[in-house]
Specification:
Elements: H1 20-23, E1 33-34, H2 35-43, E2 58-62, E3 65-68, H3 69-76, H4 82-102, H5 108-120, H6 125-134, H7 139-159, H8 168-177, E4 185-193, H9 196-207, H10 213-216, E5 218-224, H11 230-235, E6 248-250, E7 253-263, H12 269-298, E8 302-304
Helix pairs in contact: 3-4, 4-7, 5-7, 8-12
Length: about 300
């Protein structure tokens, strides 16, 4: 699922399980097209020869809203996992419909603050708007996406996060099993671009001293190797602290990563308990989230269309 960040307004970089802190970060959001609007757009296909008719083909219906093939492809790209992306959009619509049903609202001041945080990740305001243009987005569209993200956060906090807890007994039971590794943790920063030429240009400028990595990089925080995507796991062992990777190709685009800090994890008992608590919480959060989505689907009309 997509988030918007420096260098690109959204990027999915690492596969990280939910911790209590991470669980509060809502899933990235995508634009939603109303079912009725699809047919209106279809009437004008003859006036839009540059667009493929397939882009407007309805691939799923969630209650009174439709998902088009174009929306899914925009999210995942032509070579991505279409099925997973479609499932993500179905879940997103279900969550937003539940938000509307419960009349959940978010303060516009909070939305504006989040928008400013994104702007601050770019070297200048001009760079921010230039990147929006590359992504075919307006600032208004980005703000609406952020508002949806915050609305889902409020719903998930109540129905998922608020119902997950880990008891001391559960931690001690897991600790007694003794199946924990003390692998190193790496603090990573990255630059993401969708286009290969763009990331290569940035890579060469950094190598040539024309550009500083920190000017465009986003701090991703600490991760153990197994938490990263396979593409990153392959590169990580060959990098020294402060060394820039070569462009890394993933389904979502191209990445440059750098290890900014490394921690040797020789944890004392209390640190180990905290790690166990986090692991148990991640597992329970995921289980509760899946249960909540299943509840929403049970009470909804969801049709996945098999278009030939």
């Amino acid at each position: 699922m997509n988030t918007k960040s420096s260098g690109r307004v959204h990027s999915s970089v690492v596969v990280v399980e939910f911790t209590r802190q991470q669980a509060e970060q809502a899933l990235p959001l995508h634009s939603i097209v109303l079912y009725s609007c699809i047919f209106v757009v279809g009437l004008f296909l003859s006036l839009l020869p540059s667009l493929s008719a397939d882009a407007f083909r309805i691939v799923a219906v969630v209650n009174d809203e439709a998902i088009t093939e174009g929306e899914v492809e925009e999210l995942v790209g032509p070579k991505g996992d279409f099925s997973s992306a479609l499932n993500y959009l179905v879940e997103e619509i279900l969550l937003l419909q539940e938000v509307k049903r419960r009349q959940i609202e978010v303060d516009q001041e909070i939305v504006n603050k989040e928008l400013e945080k994104i702007k601050e990740r770019f070297p200048s305001e001009e760079d921010f708007y230039r990147q929006l243009q590359k992504e075919n987005l307006t600032a208004h569209q980005l703000k609406k996406n952020l508002e949806k993200q915050l609305l889902i956060q409020k719903l998930v906090r109540k129905e998922v996060l608020g119902r997950v807890s880990v008891t001391p007994d559960e931690v001690e039971e897991k600790l007694s099993e003794g199946n924990f590794s003390d692998e190193n943790s790496y603090r990573l920063s990255e630059i993401f671009r969708k286009e290969k030429k763009e990331i290569e240009k940035i890579f060469q400028k950094i190598k040539g001293g024309e550009l500083k990595f920190d000017e465009l990089a986003v701090d991703l925080g600490y991760f153990q190797k197994q938490e990263l995507t396979p593409e990153f796991q392959v590169v990580l062992p060959g990098l020294k602290i402060g060394e820039l990777s070569k462009p890394i190709k993933r389904e979502d685009g191209y990445h440059l990563i750098c290890i900014t800090e490394k921690k040797e994890n020789e944890r004392n008992p209390e640190e180990l308990r905290e790690a166990i608590r986090g692991e148990l919480f991640q597992k329970k959060f995921s289980q509760r989230y899946e249960e909540f989505i299943a509840e929403l689907k049970k009470n909804a009309y969801v049709e996945i269309k098999n278009n030939e």
